[in-house]
Design brief:
This protein is α+β, with helices and mostly antiparallel strands. Helix content is about 30%, strand content about 25%. The protein has a domain of about 80 residues: Alpha-Beta Plaits (2-Layer Sandwich).
C-alpha cells in the first residue's frame, strides 16, 4: 500500500518496542486502543500497535534478545505516522496534555521501552 496514494502526505514515523507481561495483555490492549484513538484525534495520520508473533528469525538481533525478554513477557511493536517531525511534535504535545492518558496505570516497565522518531526513506 503506497500511503501517498491513500491521500497521506507524510514523512515521519514514531516507533517503539516494549515488553509487556503476558498476563497483562488484556489490560494493555485496552490502553493501546485508547492510545490509538487519542493519537488519531490529535492528528496522527495512523497509529498501530502489534503483538509479537515470529520473534526468533534470522539474521539479526531478535526483539526478545534486545529487550532481555522474560519467558512471561510478550513483545509489542507500535508506530505512528505523521506529516513531518514538526507535525509529530505538535500531535505529541497535545497527546501529553490529554487527560484520558495522564492517569493510566501502565502494565509494563517504561524503562525497558525503546523509542525513536524516523524519517521515511522508502515505501511501496
Amino acid at each position: 500500500m503506497h500511503l501517498a496514494t491513500k491521500g497521506y502526505n507524510m514523512s515521519y514515523v514514531d516507533g517503539f518496542v516494549l515488553p509487556v507481561p503476558t498476563k497483562n495483555l488484556a489490560k494493555y490492549r485496552r490502553i493501546a486502543r485508547l492510545a490509538a484513538k487519542v493519537w488519531r484525534e490529535h492528528g496522527a495520520l495512523a497509529y498501530v500497535e502489534c503483538l509479537g508473533d515470529a520473534m526468533q528469525g534470522q539474521p539479526g538481533h531478535p526483539f526478545p534478545k534486545l529487550l532481555k525478554l522474560k519467558p512471561t513477557e510478550s513483545v509489542v511493536f507500535g508506530w505512528g505516522l505523521f506529516k513531518s517531525r514538526k507535525h509529530r511534535d505538535q500531535v505529541n504535545a497535545r497527546v501529553i496534555k490529554d487527560k484520558r492518558l495522564a492517569k493510566l496505570d501502565l502494565p509494563f516497565d517504561m524503562k525497558r521501552m525503546t523509542y525513536g522518531g524516523f524519517k521515511i526513506l522508502a515505501e511501496s
